[in-house]
Amino acid sequence: MSRPTSPVRHVSGYGRRYAHRLPLEENNDYLNEVLERMRRDAMRRRRYYNRVDETDRAIPLPIEVSTVEFYCKDNAKAHHTEAYDLVEGKEPVPVFRRGEPFYLGIRFNRPFNINTDQVRIDLTFGPKNQLNKGTLILLPVTSQKSFTRDPSKWDICQARLERAILTVQIQIPYAAGVGLWRMKIQSKVPGSNKINVFECKDNIYILFNPWCRDDPVFMADSKDRQEYVLSDVGKIFVGTHSQPVGRPWVFGQFAEAVLPASVFLLEKSGLDYSARGNPVKIVRAISAMVNSNDDSGVVIGNWSGNYEDGTAPWSWTGSAAILEQFLTSGGKSVRYGQCWVFSGVCTTVCRALGIPCRSTTNFVSAHDTDDSLTVDIYLDADGNKQEDLIMDSIWNFHVWNDCWMARSDLPSGYGGWQAIDATPQETSEGAFRAGPASLVAIRRGEISHLYDAPFVFAEVNADVVHWQADESELGFKKLKTNTYHVGRLIVTKRVGFDDDFGTRDMEDISLDYKSKEGSSEERMAVLNAARRTGLTHIYDMPPPGKEDVRFHLRDIDRVMIGQPFRVIVDVENKSDEVRTVTSVLSASTVHYTGIIARKVKRSRGVFSLKPRQKEELGIEVSVDDYLDKLVDYAMLKIYAISTVKETQQTWAEEDDFQVEKPPLKIEIEGTLKVNRRVNIRVTFTNPLKRKLEDCAVTIEGPGLSEPDKTLLDDVGPGEVMKHIQTLVPRKAGPRKITALFTSRQLIEVLGSKQVVVYD
Fold it and tell me: Active-site residue among 376, 421, 463, 655?
């Protein structure tokens, strides 16, 4: 076979490698084939690289949050929180109430597209966040324009979208945890693992909502809400049942440090976060944490009379300074307080958190140490108290708190006012606290209901049993059971009324706690309580013996400090025979807790009464007898006991009263205007015939002045004390100024004045 003719001629050099050439048409086919193969390879490589890009690299990046706006002031109006100082200023803080939605503005780095931008708002409560505990809330932003979930659940909807600014509305459920919440916003795009996270710097305070019908603390009457939630000044009543004195108190729940301090207090309590939506658990924790006895709470109690290493209880004019000191010291307990201070702080914390609360004073308040529902007083044969045998006590007055809430943990009908007590008296479940105890249950004697109902019942309705030493087998005989002495008067400040000079703003709420004293309903409640505690044997009293001599201890109406007074007992022999009477009259100064401080005067006598004869027994108490023996709140106790020899009739009675002090007079020099200086003049006349030393005056008023204490010169006998102080009002509207004067010889001289600050 012959070879095919060569299509090309031979050439020299490197061209020899290509020894021949294809015809033109064959060459074109080849090039086309090469191009096609190269095209297929390029497409295959492109598909490969595209597949890698889709897995590892997102072409559109996630949207980023630039800023977040809580519209603090606008939201505050709808949430009734505009009075909080935290909402004001250049860096306002969001303060919301649960059961109410709030608006939130989000500015992004580019226009927001609901179809390609996935945005989720995360809310957290406490350090360990769990969905099933309600402490982690996830709210994806969707296109829905209204809420679709019921008010018991968190929800979110779009309110407005303007390119890069998205405004949403968030629904806070009516049972949400109360306290400090945090927020962060996450953003991503579909198919990407990259997530942008924006941490909101703002703390979010969520409070109880007395305006929300679904919230357990709902209070229907707007005047009640104004008094028990929004009023930041008021009165705490002290003194005696016959002479109550209204002590002005600045609750100051809207002051800048108070809400953070109140939330910090809850943090220190260790209360589980899942329980912080329950007002019953919250107020129980508050009653434990306001005192410092076993948990390093807010205030240290002190009844010793020695306050040199702290502030005397009567020197406080309000709660805000106490809570600010507690917060800024990192939770170090404040020195010192007594029952009205504990109650004042308790009222402030509850109102700050949104719980309706009032300070309540019980005059002649029993401290039953053995749950017998009685106060047992032991006397020797001469009628002197045997203090070493007496474990129970009766305070001239005691101040605690009532909080308003539903009680889903009790049978229906036991909601409303609930008593809590932060004064450390007895432990409850291992901590010094009391309550919440339903006032309805207390009134009915249903003391088996939670919490601490027997203790509160005894405070207002215990019987006082007098025992006297004799030669019987028991060593004591029962002299008398007094069924009306305890709980003589229970009061709080009247809703919507202020009296700067008297007690017209005092409301008697005794019937909230018990039926009318001596009524069949009241005794039935006592016996009901006794039955529930197995103590009916104590109340099975023998019928009284023949009593034909009438005794009556006269009330002492008013005694101005520096004036003498008389103790008088009226005696009448109603029989037709001679009666021999032994009587003892005594006067002592006392602490408000009922503990005897110093004996002032005592008189004992034996005399005969002819048939139908009337007699007046009495002792004169001079200024020199009592003035240097007064303690704390200038209280005195009168005690009288008498026996009738022929019939063995025994009678005993006691009374307490407070020596009155002149009020401070407060005058304004000019018109009060926001950010304008104005002078406040405070005056009073020294009622004593002695010089007042170590004098000081403290002036305070929400929106007007922080507590400011000024040392003064001595004030001579009968001299007028004058003090002028300059204030710069910060807020417009009705305000109250409170002033307190103290000295070594005369403490707690008070005054207050209602004023109006103009813009």
Answer: 421
In whole angstroms, give the CA distance from residue 346 to residue 400.
8
Convert the pLDDT of each residue in 202-214 to its tens digit.
899 999 999 999 9
Helix (H) or strand (E) holding 442: helix 439-444
Whether 398 is catalytic is: yes
Q: Does the global pTM surpass 0.90?
A: no
535 vs 527: CA distance, rounded Å? 9
Tokens of 219: 């209070």
Q: For residue 680, give the nearest of 693, 667, 691 by alpha carbon.
A: 667
Residue 403 among the catalytic residues: no
Q: How far apart are CA 311 and CA 318, in angstroms?
A: 13
Active site residue 72: no
pLDDT band at 46 (very low <50, low <70, confident <90, very high): low
* Nearest by Cα to 71 from 104, 49, 36: 104
Cα 157 to Cα 139: distance, rounded to the nearest angstrom: 9
Q: What is the DSSP string of 714-742?
A: -B-TTPEEEEEEEE---S-EEEEEEEEEE
* Catalytic residue (choose from 367, 398, 591, 723): 398
In this structure, of 183-187, 273-277, 375-379, 380-384, the range with the lowest mean pLDDT score is 380-384
Amino acid at the residue 625? D
- pLDDT at residue 414 in the model: 87
Q: Which of 339, 346, 350, 695 is catalytic?
A: 339
- Exposed, middle or buried, 184 (CB in 10 Å: 0-12/13-18/19+)? middle
**C-alpha dihedral over 216, 217, 218, 221, to 10 degrees?**
150
HEC states along 672-684?
Answer: CECCCCEEEEEEE
